[in-house]
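Q: A reviewer asked whether we had any structural model of the full assembly, not just the individual parts. We don't, so I'm hoping you can provide one. Inputs are below.
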Amino acid sequence: MPIYRAPVEDTLFVLRDVLGYERYNNLPGFAETPEVLEAVLGESARLAETDMHPLNRTGDVEGCARHEDGSVTTPKGFKKAYRQYREGGWVGLAAPVEHGGQGLPYTLHNAVSEYMVSANMALMMYPGLTQGAIATIITHGSDEQKARWLPNMVDGSWTATMNLTEPHCGTDLGLLRTRATPVGDGSYRISGQKIFISAGEHDLAENIVHLVLARIEGAPKGVKGISLFIVPKFIPDAAGNPVRRNTVACGSLEDKMGIHGNATCVMNYDDAEGHLLGEVNGGLKAMFTMMNEARLGVGLQGLAVAEAAYQNAAAYARDRLQGRSLSGAKAPDKPADPIIVHPDIRRKLMTMKAFNEAGRALLLWTAMQSDIAHRSPDEPDRQAADDLLGLLTPVVKGVLTDKGFDHAVMAQQVFGGHGYIEEHGMSQYVRDARIAMIYEGANGIQALDLVGRKLPLNGGRAVQAFFREVGEFCDENRSDETMAPYTKALKKGLNDLQAATLWLMQNGPRKPDNAGAASTEYMHLFGLVALGYMWGRMVKAAQARLAAGRDDAAFSQNKLVTGRYFMERVMPETTAQLTRISSGADTMMALPAEAF
Amino acid sequence: MPIYRAPVEDTLFVLRDVLGYERYNNLPGFAETPEVLEAVLGESARLAETDMHPLNRTGDVEGCARHEDGSVTTPKGFKKAYRQYREGGWVGLAAPVEHGGQGLPYTLHNAVSEYMVSANMALMMYPGLTQGAIATIITHGSDEQKARWLPNMVDGSWTATMNLTEPHCGTDLGLLRTRATPVGDGSYRISGQKIFISAGEHDLAENIVHLVLARIEGAPKGVKGISLFIVPKFIPDAAGNPVRRNTVACGSLEDKMGIHGNATCVMNYDDAEGHLLGEVNGGLKAMFTMMNEARLGVGLQGLAVAEAAYQNAAAYARDRLQGRSLSGAKAPDKPADPIIVHPDIRRKLMTMKAFNEAGRALLLWTAMQSDIAHRSPDEPDRQAADDLLGLLTPVVKGVLTDKGFDHAVMAQQVFGGHGYIEEHGMSQYVRDARIAMIYEGANGIQALDLVGRKLPLNGGRAVQAFFREVGEFCDENRSDETMAPYTKALKKGLNDLQAATLWLMQNGPRKPDNAGAASTEYMHLFGLVALGYMWGRMVKAAQARLAAGRDDAAFSQNKLVTGRYFMERVMPETTAQLTRISSGADTMMALPAEAF
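A: Here is a predicted structure for the entire assembly that you could use as a starting point for your response.
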């Protein structure tokens, strides 16, 4: 049976010591006292550990079942756990008070979501998708729509879905065929088939609000002709009570590699009643509101599953007796030493730990940009935060999920043969983590978003600000001898990233394939520098704690070691990435298609 | 439904043009004419494509079933396919003629096994394990034992297993508890439980020959006190007919992440009749004969599954229409371009292709060392080949399986969301490939074998010979301007590897954890140089074909491009690996166990 313990102390360190969370109390929602922050984290940890985590493996084994009438049953216990989550007010934690939410920081929502997703990713996908839908309705909905849909979504009695993909069209939404026909009363009839719809049908909520991309008859071809619609499973009356079944149904469930506890549905729309959300043919823009939120949420999944897998690997490595330390027996009274004494096991644990801790900081730092962008009274602050949020979102999604998967595999490897047996749960972490590299825009699309869209935006304003911030951090700390080893490695990485950026500026416009050929390596190079910067800030915060003589010196000392490991063992990759990027697209694109 | 086409032309290129297979006709078994070589490859390709491949996905879905009496049923169709394999003489292809084999080169056995394993890894594990058992009985068995066991194993009517692992003991065989009690008539009674026994029980063969590690009562503690036993499922009479059921039984089947078509058994030995194989307390040595053979076979699995996954990704990338090329529409008559036009898809395909082709060459080159070591009339040749075989075996096992898995994941990624759905078969490749990183010595153990055992052996004779060979290749070809871009990158990689080796020599003896901390990165650095060397030789062979004006210029041209890609995009990793290795063990080992 896998274990899981929410890393509350680490979250508090990132929020308070690294990000200075308590200094943001001029922002709405940030003004809670430290006790409330700790209480929220503690309560969410309890819910995750006690109520959600025990259902993770059983949910994987049981999976979801679709019945003849199209209804879907979730695994045993999911209903109760979802009700606890909902009744705890977790769905609307960061939603605006005027729509029934608690108005707490989005940063805090991310902090607690990490625990919940570590505990049970498949279960958390049901309310998880509601978040992006709430944001989309807030941003693009009319007042009437907000009043009609949001309260039940914010309190979790209704969940939501995103309906983009069709059998012949995933990344390229311009190809989509689902039709919307105006009825004349302001509503539309939606017809078509959508696939891969997470939480498309289930038994956890009273209603399901589908946000559906469709093409209004006569609309322009391509992405300029798609619009977004609200298509509820049950059509509510004026008081918000679901009264009439709409003609949308789950046609089948997909048989997937993982996230078995979540219902991935083929959804059939058969002249279903739909309501335009946002502008006619403005669907893509509206969808991006939802997607950007969801992309951070998927990056969080990469981190969360890797953290859970890591904790199990660490526990196994401390317990499993096998072989003797190369430097002499460490447990001479036992038949063998615990495998944590072996450097190659330690290498795996350190690699995972160094990534997870920096990944958590990066995720929360990014989420904080969202809070600042939406809540700060200061326009320049809002803009700077929005720039950074846009820049970091594809990095968080692409890098935390690629590495999260790699590290779930690494954690499984610590278990040897036992890792391959389903019973131990390590296979599930690998199978679950795998989807995060694919959905909400496969990671290759994240890389293209970063290189093709986010870098050149506003003349490179966002990326220049990021370079300036990291560069200044290095400069400010390089004369501090306790910081110098860290800033030196970080500065080297930053130089590689800046050189790669320059290469892109010089070679991308001339030949767009050069940008495409560089994109994935560039995203990972960017990720290394961003994570390295987080380590720089975490080490600085740990030094400050040590200097202040706090009584948890071991915690801070461990940060210094783990940060050093990241600089020594992980950052060297930046040089190789720069070399790859600079090799360009010519060789990559040289073969004819039939040569493969 | 996944596709598979055996890469016969590529195998022939490696065997003939690169390795000079036909120049070895002084070795027993190598004297077949080119027509026979092509016929063998062609026939095995047909068997793999037509009879084995269609059972791959169905075998995954159905899995194996254990019945109340302990018997195990394999998936539908496996019996017939195994019979075809057996009747085609494939089990004994490379086995000595005096034991009923065909005496053909082991190199050829590996070439055809790649096809079979690409087509159906789970099925091929049933006869696959028999190979190592045959080698072990040939090396360590008495004449009576050879006569009693080998003929039925070589003709495939009996299969074999390796029984090492116990619940508390995997890598550290010194901990094993299975007991062997001498009966007095020369035989032993074996009692204990073994786990993770591949092909431990099934319905494909008339008998199953278990090779079992056990401890004779009173034997020394640790690995010096373990002996190897032959424990058959049915005890044969003098004529070799299985007549009496032995007291060994499958207690349960493991529920695994993949290779569902293969029965992974818990085996219970309950005073089962066993016969000592090799010397008393000489079990480890005998087991290594089996393991070394098996390790090459597992490396082959890494390559084979990656090749099959790659072929499917390439086909999907040519077919799937999504988006437009960054350099302008390539299929303007269609609603979108095939995704193979996108650089990041191309990057994935090129990476997989460049690895697979070099991996095939490395595997066959290594297998050829086995043939030379066992069959050459020349003692220095035999020794040099045996050195190289020992050195390369952990590299082939560790690197081809780590990268094979990574590339199965990469191939799955090309499919986007469809790759996550079991129906398309890409998930199965990932799940199946995963085990190859674990069994026959987890890859961390391969790395330790390389660094701790193979490098220092005979004063570093093997590794020095390898460095000399690669260095001379670079020197000989650097003035050839068509070769220079390749040899320059290869030489750079070799320099990094030599620097890493020097670092190990200087820092390993002083502090053994330094060797352990470096081991995995060193193995991969070694693998890059070995694969890079294969690319150097393949490019040279392709240049020779072009110079000879052969009419398949496209084939050779493609090799030049793919080799260039490997040098530009893959080899840069060597620098990062050297930096990691040189950082040593101090930071890695600094944290106390409770910090994880």
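A: Points you may want to mention in the reply: Chain B touches chain A through 94 residues (CB under 8 Å). Residues 494 and 529 of chain B are 6 Å apart (CA to CA).
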